[in-house]
């Protein structure tokens, strides 16, 4: 039997996600009181994920019935190959992110 190397396992796991992963990480971000984070720097195990998939996953988590409190204040921004979470409350911009505009992709 040919087993997988740790690198192969890490690559496979980086592309996979379990039910609720985005909601759980959104909660961790909100609980941190950080103003903003780069998703792939904060969670290196997601390095292999496509930015579009990460952005959509967090958008879905924000709109989920199981979204953490204050999720509506999180803005998800994709810029080039990176995705950023911005906590509008922590940044002093207390309007809900959904009312702050709909274009969340930044051209560089």
Brief rundown of the structure:
This protein is an alpha+beta fold. Helices cover 36% and strands 16% of the residues.
Give the strand content. Answer: 15-25%
The average pLDDT score comes to 84
Tell me the number of structural domains: 1
Binned, the helix content reads: 25-40%
Extract low-pLDDT stretches: 99-103
- Category from helices, strands and their pairing: alpha+beta
Order of helices and strands: HHEHHEEE
- Span between termini: 48 Å
Spatial strand order of the main sheet: 1-3-2-4
Question: Which key phrases capture this entry?
Answer:
108 residues; alpha+beta; 4-stranded mixed sheet; 4 strands; 36% helix
Provide structural commentary:
With 108 residues, this protein is of the alpha+beta class. It has one domain. It is 36% helix and 16% strand. It has 4 helices and 4 strands. It has a 4-stranded mixed beta sheet. A hairpin with a 2-residue loop joins strand 2 (74-79) and strand 3. The longest helix is centred in the middle third of the chain and has 13 residues, at 51-63.
């Amino acid at each position: 039997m040919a087993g997988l190397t740790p690198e192969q396992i890490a690559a496979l796991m980086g592309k996979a996600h379990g039910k609720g992963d985005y909601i759980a990480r959104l909660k961790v971000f909100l609980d941190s009181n950080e103003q903003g984070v780069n998703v792939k720097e904060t969670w290196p195990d997601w390095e292999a994920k496509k930015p579009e998939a990460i952005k959509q996953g967090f958008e879905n988590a924000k709109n989920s019935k199981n979204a953490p409190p204050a999720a509506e204040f999180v803005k998800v921004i994709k810029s080039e190959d990176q995705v950023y979470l911005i906590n509008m409350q922590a940044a002093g911009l207390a309007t809900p992110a959904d009312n702050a505009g709909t274009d969340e992709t930044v051209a560089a």
